[in-house]
Write a structure and sequence with these properties.
The complex is a heterodimer of chains A (785) and B (160). Chain A is α/β, with parallel strands linked by helices. In chain A, helix 7 (295-313) crosses helix 22, helix 9 packs parallel to helix 16 (485-496) and helix 13 (435-442) runs parallel beside helix 16 (485-496). Chain A is globular and about 90 Å long. Chain B has two domains: 5-64, Arc Repressor Mutant, subunit A, CATH 1.10.10; 76-158, Glutaredoxin (3-Layer(aba) Sandwich), CATH 3.40.30.10. In chain B, strand 3 (132-134) and strand 4 (137-139) form a beta hairpin. The chains are: A alpha/beta (785), B alpha+beta (160). Chains A and B meet through strand 8 of A and helix 4 of B. Bound molecules: iron/sulfur cluster (3 copies) and FE2/S2 (inorganic) cluster (2 copies). Residues 81, 83-86, 122-126, 129, 131 of chain B line the site of one FE2/S2 (inorganic) cluster. One iron/sulfur cluster binds at residues 148-154, 178, 197-200, 202-203 of chain A.
């Protein structure tokens, strides 16, 4: 709508007609108090805190429901308005308990703030307060009824935002009460959005309630370590006997790609870090038993053994398996370590998406990849395969709310009736497992239409779908791992015929994309460069092994014949995730670097206790290619970041670590602050500050930023703005290299859902308690109707 | 869940009157309650499905209206108005009298399942206050004696 001119508190303001007055005020830097109003949710007009005076209107008006029109003159503060708001606060406090000293929200409570601003602390209400005991609705959600101020934000975010509709309002008037969908408990996605949005402490979380006060924590922005969507999460940490303990996760300043959103995993599933089975000391197999040992002994043993195998039998007898959850810097370092120190190309990881084929299909048109933010704004989206509600909760949120708020057109092709079909303007259901056939049809194979026809989607509907898609501009095509190899090529070809179409290739873990981008492949260097096109890397690193290495399956395949003498497994549990017989590895010297005694760790000769992503610094790349910072929040004494362990192993193997990590080049000295104890993380922050001011610290061989420099310099698609990245913003990377066509069978989806998260999920008490709570609940959608 | 043919006929007709199915929720609940006495979990599930609503939404609406109930009531639901006009003309005494005669409090049901009692807000019969509504029938200008007669009448009717 055209701009209109209005006056707010004698200030001229220009904004599009139809803007809500409360938003126009915000734009002009004037805060109008509100409880029930929340941006992007339907209007409620329930709390009457936002009352303002509009000239020519008889009574005070609610700024949250009034749209601005030309010439409007508004006063947002006057004795009359102040009195009205004070009256509202007083009414709210009438039945409000005085438990701020123990309430979770104390210190972060909007009602406290309003009481402070309007001074309605004296109560004229002398009747006995209407008390109700606190209720537990699920392992995650607790409800304290007397604290509720009936703003209905929770009801709306759960319904409109999450499409779960698990909360409602029972009774009426003063007896109104928020009610869960199963009368005395909740059956829902447990996202905690309702808790986050509650302006007071009426809804609290099982993970955090009564644990600490907001001001007793340090708050660290980092990136979620669970699925591949890369939500920004702020971890609240405080000192604990074993280091630094994470006590809360939320999205405090809403500045991330996820805006308001976090799913249960990003918000609450950080408790795995403190699981009692966490390994905190290196273990060495002595007399057939894994026995605690010192770091020195363990590193020395592994370094020397690796060097011995390399020198006596050749690097081709050593295998390296990397992780989907370590940082980009660690992944890059690991493959560099393998190729340079161990002299082997036997490097792989658990592949959950065919990124090399994606690179090959895009053939250098890296600008055709969409960001997570773009998914929220695209005018049309085509979703093929996958079930984002369960496996990519943020992506599902972006799609859902794009449809709701921007009327985006959503086309879904899925053999299962996934929940997002509820938002779809076109849902096409091919026979089970034939998503790839659908792609062939889109790409022009007429014959496929009949094979795709089902009772719900007859052949003609498939043709209609293709027609509709062809007329879309700015379409974002999102596809799951159902589409691999040459099918992926066909899809990209089809997309390339559409104006401005972009792609998102879905992988499963927090840094699956980073593992692929950083070259954890036996035949690809970082940036999807085939081994024979790695001049750039050779110039920088020196000579590299030329022969194609073995993939994960091949390594295991030759192990039993004595072909694999040593195996280095970093942050991965191939024995638990893939169908591998442990017996096959009985002749191999196995080193496992992990947090927990996984199936793979159980057969290891040496286990090195690693820090997780919440306990170190670096970067992650989400499935869209958005690069974001990972910052150290927690700490467990005894563990080390994978980065440091790899560098130390190189050193123990007799390698000059300056050739591995480009640190200390300027030879300066600086006070890097404490890296342990109460001020843990200061060194990281200090480094960030130095970086932001153009100073390059990198005095330590354990500084991931030194490797990030090298990544930016050598990996195609990673030339991003460092200062933007360090400021906590997402930076889009692109898929540039030539890529490669691999056997599609090498892709093995993780199949995690909303409440599982690979190894991390197994060790998260919270996730397990939710799974138990839901037992007996039929799988699938947690919404009726 | 089975309803009578009359119910089904009415339901079909009502649904056709509105652009969205949910619009018929309130009358449908009333008709269903007339047939089954109260809105059981089963009825709620059935109606939610028919109207493409969540059970929670249906429950929320039921809880909003005092005429709707999720618990069994007596065969005769005695609703005594104690709002202002009736209050001035002895409504509270009538209510008290009913309590004693029936031996139950507001919101309760007699053990023989014949009567339940409720104190309600204005039922729109102020001109003839004090007034009482039993199921859909009004009784006006009441005195205790009058009330006894009414209760007796229903008792007789109910035990025949
Ligand atoms: S899905 Fe559950 S946790 Fe999430 S907003 Fe709804 S009720 Fe709250
Ligand atoms: S529980 Fe919180 S968010 Fe929900 S209505 Fe009450 S105060 Fe508002
Ligand atoms: S959607 Fe993914 S990245 Fe976001 S909080 Fe959930 S698990 Fe973490
Ligand atoms: S914010 Fe306007 S009425 Fe609540
Ligand atoms: S006050 Fe009793 S009927 Fe109106």
């Amino acid at each position: 709508m055209a701009d209109v001119n209005i006056t707010i508190d004698s200030k001229p303001v220009r904004a599009p007609g139809g803007t809500l007055l409360i938003e126009a005020c915000k734009k002009a830097g004037i805060e109008v108090p509100s409880f029930c109003y929340y941006p992007n949710l339907s209007l409620q007009g329930a709390c009457r805190m936002c009352l303002v005076k509009i000239e020519k209107m008889p009574k005070l008006q609610t700024a949250c429901t009034t749209m601005i029109t030309e010439g409007m003159t508004v006063t947002t503060d006057s004795p009359e308005i102040h009195q009205a708001r004070k009256g509202m606060v007083e009414l709210l406090l009438g039945n409000h308990p005085l438990d701020c000293p123990v309430c979770d929200a104390g210190g972060e409570c909007e009602l406290q703030d309003m009481t402070f601003s309007y001074g309605a602390a004296e109560s004229k209400f002398i009747d006995i307060k209407n008390h109700r005991d606190e209720q537990q609705w699920s392992p995650v959600v607790y409800f304290d009824r007397p604290r509720c101020i009936l703003c209905y934000r929770c009801v709306r975010i759960c319904g409109e935002g999450m499409d779960v509709w698990a909360l409602g309002v029972e009774n009426r008037g003063v007896n109104s009460i928020i009610a869960p969908n199963r009368q005395d408990h909740l059956e829902c996605e447990e996202c905690g959005m309702c808790i986050d949005i509650c302006p007071v402490g009426a809804l609290t979380s099982g993970a955090y309630r009564y644990k600490t006060r907001p001001w007793e924590m340090k708050h660290v922005d980092t990136t979620c370590t669970h699925c591949a969507d890369g939500c920004k999460t702020t971890l609240g940490v405080r000192r604990a006997p074993a280091g630094m303990e994470i006590v809360r996760g939320d999205n405090r300043d809403k500045s991330g790609i996820n805006g308001d959103f976090l799913c249960i995993k990003g918000r609450y599933a950080f408790d795995f870090a403190h699981h009692q089975q966490r390994i905190k000391q290196p273990l060495i197999r002595k007399n057939a038993r894994l026995t605690p040992a010192s770091w020195e002994e363990a590193l020395d043993l592994v370094g020397k053994r690796f060097a011995q195998v390399r020198d006596q039998e050749g690097g081709t007898r050593i295998g390296v398996i990397g992780s989907n959850r370590t940082t980009n810097e660690e992944n890059y370092l690991l493959q560099k370590f393998a190729r340079l120190v161990l002299k082997t190309n036997n490097v792989d990881h658990h592949r959950t998406a065919d990124f090399p084929a994606f690179a090959a299909a895009l053939a250098g048109r890296g600008d055709r990849t969409a960001t997570m933010r773009e998914v929220y704004h695209a005018s049309a989206i085509l979703l093929i395969g996958n079930d984002p509600t369960n496996r990519h909760p943020l992506l599902a949120w972006q799609i859902r709310n794009n449809v709701r708020l921007h009327r985006s057109r959503l086309y879904v092709i899925n053999s299962e009736p996934i929940k997002l079909r509820r938002q779809a303007s076109f849902f096409a259901q091919p026979p089970a497992g034939s998503e790839a056939r659908a792609v062939e049809f889109l790409a022009g194979e007429e014959g496929a239409a009949d094979a795709l026809a089902t009772s719900s989607t007859p052949a003609q509907r498939w043709r209609d779908l293709r027609e509709k898609l062809r007329s879309e501009q700015n379409l974002i095509i999102i596809f799951g791992s159902e589409i691999r190899g040459r099918d992926l090529e066909k899809l990209v070809k089809f997309g390339s015929t559409l104006a401005q179409a972009k792609f998102v290739c879905l992988s499963d873990y927090a840094n699956s994309r980073g593992a692929a981008d950083m070259g954890l492949y036996p035949d690809l260097l970082p940036g999807y460069l085939p081994l024979n096109q790695g001049t750039k890397f050779r110039d920088d690193w020196g000579e590299l092994p030329a022969a194609t290495g073995l993939d994960l399956g091949e390594m295991i395949g030759i192990a039993n014949e004595g072909g694999l003498r040593a195996l280095y497994v970093v942050g991965s549990n191939p024995l638990g995730r893939l169908p591998i017989d442990p017996f096959l590895l009985s002749k191999t010297f196995i080193v496992v670097q992990d947090m927990f005694p996984t199936e793979t760790a159980a057969i290891a000769d040496v286990v090195l206790p690693a820090a997780n992503a919440y306990e170190k610094s670096g970067t992650f790349t989400n499935t869209c290619g958005d690069l974001q910072l990972v910052r150290k929040a927690g700490e467990i004494t005894g563990t080390k970041p994978d980065f440091e362990i790899i560098v130390r192993l190189a050193s123990a193997a007799g390698f000059d670590i300056r050739k591995l990590v480009p640190f200390g080049k300027r030879g300066t000295h600086a006070d890097m602050g404490q890296s342990r104890g109460a001020q843990a993380g200061e060194a990281d922050r200090h480094a960030v500050w130095l970086e932001a001011h153009g100073l390059e610290p990198k005095l330590s061989p354990f500084d991931p930023m030194a490797i990030l420099d090298e990544i930016e310099r050598l990996v195609p698609g990673y030339e991003v703005s460092r200062s933007n990245l360090l400021a906590g913003n997402d930076q889009h990377t692109t898929v540039e290299g030539p890529g490669m066509w691999h056997d599609p069978a090498l892709i093995i989806p993780a199949r995690d859902d909303l409440f599982t998260s690979g190894t991390l999920g197994r060790y998260s008490r919270l996730l397990n308690s939710v799974i138990e709570h839901r037992q007996g609940v039929p799988a699938g959608e947690v919404v009726a109707g | 869940m089975k309803f009578s043919p009359q119910f089904e006929q009415r339901f079909e007709e009502m649904v056709s009157h509105y652009p969205t199915r949910r619009s018929v929720l309130v009358p449908t609940l009333l008709y269903a309650q007339d047939e089954t006495g109260y809105l059981s979990d089963e009825v709620i599930r059935e109606l939610a499905e028919r109207l493409e609503l969540t059970e929670l939404e249906v429950r929320n609406v039921i809880s909003y209206y005092s005429m709707l109930t999720t618990r069994p009531r007596g065969k005769y639901h005695v609703q005594v108005c104690t709002n202002i006009a009736c209050l001035l003309r002895g409504g509270e005494e009538i209510f008290e009298h009913c309590r004693q005669t029936l031996g139950i409090g507001g919101g309760e049901t007699t053990s023989d399942g014949l009567f339940s009692l409720a104190e309600v807000e204005c039922i729109g019969a102020c001109s003839w206050a004090p007034a009482v509504q039993v199921n859909y029938d009004f009784h006006e200008n009441l005195t205790r004696e009058e009330m006894d007669k009414i209760l007796g009448h229903y008792k007789k009717k109910g035990t025949q």
